[in-house]
Design goal:
The chain is of the alpha+beta class. The protein has 17 helices and 20 strands. Strands 12, 13, 14, 15, 16, 17 and 18 form a seven-stranded mixed beta sheet that branches. Strands 1-2-11-10-9 form a five-stranded mixed beta sheet, with no helix packed on it. Strands 5-6-8-7 form a four-stranded antiparallel beta sheet, covered by helices on one side. β9 and β10 form a beta hairpin. α8 packs antiparallel against α10 and α16 packs antiparallel against α17. It starts with a helix and ends with a strand.
């Protein structure tokens, strides 16, 4: 692709190359001496290097962790309940301060060793240890002691009841890892991890990401033999050829301009939102609520969606599209009130720094915001960096504002808690210490609530507080889209807009 981009290749030759390339993707069957191998082949615009569950953060990495690892229990959204997984049974005392989990026998890690209670203890203690630096240590802040009573029994003792414990243990962040492999590989474990999940990772470099089915998976072998992801650059030729209508995002199959008639479309409104957060740890006009409110009044979300298109779908008034606030009226974009707010904030026309990370359409989002606000005399200087750079406090805290987005899986209550509590959260990093303490007090009350609806109600109050303070501006919800051949069965989009590979099979 680089050669095609740099050289004077005739247009017809380029078309022939892309015709060949697009034919390589989708469902492939290959015959070897013993049997037929079934491969699902896709493309992605970047590498997938950060797969240590204790540190995983991005949507795609989280999805892959779920293919490679297992958790003690899992959450079923349809039934709104927790189901057995590595643990076939669990129980607690009356107060919910002691929990005992009973593990399945015979579950093997991909390197051949049996998974035991000692692995569960090691995994959880590693995350809880501040020295590890996991942004999810707060999930285990109430844990007093974790004990392996025997090879298949784990006891967790809490300092106080925490009614989100099961949610935490069902999170992919708490996936069970083999301690000796983590110690042996060190930092390399993140790129080439070893788990016990339905697929094992065999290749993960700058060009290829390859999963192979685990033959003896405890819940049954996957139908697919292999999942291949080819790393294809997002910009230049790929963008010209495959994405006339917007950015190419990670979906199940290579999307050509004229997909075959036999392909099926999948759509789902994303549970999450793009947002613009104000850095309350840096001096500047964004410290004034009147300024933040003025930016909200200047912002035309409908126009942003219409201008940029792609998978941007509807204006957002909160993180969840089904949790609309009747008090939010997007039709009212009051220019005079906004201008008055700018004057009250003592904004002098200085250029303010807007940061974001590469990919996911962010480059187009920040450029649109820069042009839009410039029409009203509000000047923004855009900086786009790799996400690993933006996660560094010394980089992020140079900004006046940060554009990011959040997508939640089936456990959206846990997702919101993580967004508000995680040290790696862009949103939390922008809050002042006083505001962070105020939010933490509210979140402590969430963890004390036994009833799920009461937990959700308290989280709505936290979001209402964020809106009232204009600590961030919600931008839009996205529509997740994918396409697949009609001969494939078991295909459905999960809450992240991705496909569980274990369930896919090809109807010959």
């Amino acid at each position: 692709m680089q050669v095609l981009n740099d050289s004077a290749i005739p247009p017809r030759a380029r078309e022939r190359f892309f015709d060949w390339l697009s034919g390589q993707f989708g469902f492939r069957t290959e015959e070897d001496e013993e049997r037929t191998l079934e491969t699902l082949r896709m493309s992605f615009y970047r590498t997938i290097p950060a797969l240590d569950p204790a540190f995983v953060g991005r949507r795609t990495e989280s999805h892959m962790v779920k293919q490679i690892f297992d958790t003690l229990i899992r959450y079923d959204e349809e039934k709104d309940t927790f189901l057995p997984h590595l643990a076939h049974h669990w129980e607690s005392n009356e107060t919910g301060s002691e929990w005992t989990f009973y593990l399945r026998k015979g579950v093997l890690f991909h390197h051949g060793r049996e998974l035991t209670a000692h692995d569960v203890v090691w995994t959880l203690e590693r995350i809880a240890d501040p020295k590890t630096g996991s942004p999810y240590h707060w999930m285990l802040q109430d844990v007093e002691r974790i004990t392996a009573l025997r090879e298949t029994t784990v006891k967790i003792e809490l300092r106080r009841p925490n009614h989100l414990l099961l949610s935490f243990l069902a999170s992919d962040r708490m996936s069970i890892v083999p301690g000796e492999v983590v110690a042996q590989k060190g930092a390399a474990f993140s790129r080439m991890p070893v788990g016990s999940g339905p697929f094992r990772l065999v290749t993960n470099d700058e060009q290829m990401f390859i999963l192979e089915a685990t033959p003896n998976y405890f819940l049954g072998r996957a139908h697919l033999d292999r999942v291949e992801i080819w790393v294809v650059p997002q910009k230049d030729l790929r963008e010209d050829f495959f994405s006339k209508e917007g950015e190419v995002h990670f979906q199940t199959f290579w999307k050509t301009q004229a997909p075959p008639d036999k392909w099926q479309e999948l759509e789902r409104l994303e549970r999450g939102s793009a947002y613009l957060a104000f850095n309350l740890n840096r001096t500047g006009p964004q410290q004034h609520k009147a300024f933040r409110q003025a930016m909200d009044r200047f912002l035309d979300r409908e126009k942003m969606i219409a201008d940029l298109g792609g998978n941007r779908y509807v204006p957002a008034s909160g993180f969840l599209p089904d949790e609309k606030d009747a008090a939010v009226d997007f039709a009212e974009v009051s220019r005079p009130k906004a201008q008055d707010g700018l004057e009250k904030s003592a904004y002098q026309g200085e250029r303010l720094k807007l940061f974001t990370y590469e990919g996911a359409g962010n480059e187009n989002n920040v450029e649109w915001l820069r042009r839009h606000f410039a029409e009203y005399g509000l000047l923004l200087e855009v900086t786009v960096v790799p996400i690993e750079e933006l996660k560094k406090p010394e980089i992020l805290l140079q900004s006046h504002m940060v554009l990011s987005g959040e997508v939640f899986d089936e456990q959206w209550v846990l997702g919101l808690m993580e967004l508000y509590k995680s040290d790696a959260s862009f949103l939390r990093m922008t809050w002042s210490p006083a505001f962070r303490e105020r939010i933490d007090q509210e979140l402590d009350l969430v963890m004390l609530e036994q009833d799920g609806e009461c937990q959700r109600k308290r989280l709505r109050e936290v979001e209402k507080l964020l809106r009232e303070q204009h600590a961030l501006l919600f931008l839009f919800h996205s529509q997740q889209q994918s396409a697949y051949h009609s001969a494939l069965e078991g295909v459905s989009l999960n809450a992240l807009g991705l496909v569980e590979y274990k369930n896919i099979w090809f109807k010959h």
